[in-house]
């Protein structure tokens, strides 16, 4: 990363984020599409076992899943319930 690129970034909470000027060029990340993902102890980096719970941050609605397919189905349901807009 060039020094000029580093100057555009600021450190926040252990991660680097774009400056407000650089964020204007990026897609919007509305809070209404924020989700919390909690994985079970059995889920590891291979994702051979992938289970847990997904929660829509704004509404608190939750869905459990026991596979990657169920995860995407749960995400789809939560997005539809919210209206999927923005």
In short:
The chain is of the alpha+beta class and 86 residues long. The protein contains three helices and five strands. Helix content is 29%, strand content 26%.
Structure description:
The protein has 86 residues and is α+β, with helices and mostly antiparallel strands. It has helices spanning 3-8, 20-23, 68-82; strands at residues 9-12, 15-18, 35-39, 52-56, 62-65. It has a domain at 32-86. The chain is 29% helix and 26% strand. The strands form two sheets. Strands 3-4-5 form a three-stranded antiparallel sheet, with helices on one face. The chain has a two-stranded antiparallel ribbon with strand order 1-2.
Main attributes?
disordered N terminus, alpha+beta, 5 strands, two-stranded antiparallel sheet, 29% helix
Taking all Cα atoms into account, the compactness measure Rg is 17 Å
Average pLDDT score: 79
Kindly name the structural category. alpha+beta
Beta strand % = 25-35%
Oligomer classification: single chain
Q: Which term fits the overall shape?
A: globular
- Major sheet: order of its strands? 3-4-5
| Helix content range | 25-40%
Task: List the total number of helices.
Answer: 3
In terms of per-residue confidence, which ranges show pLDDT below 50 for 5 or more consecutive residues? 2-12
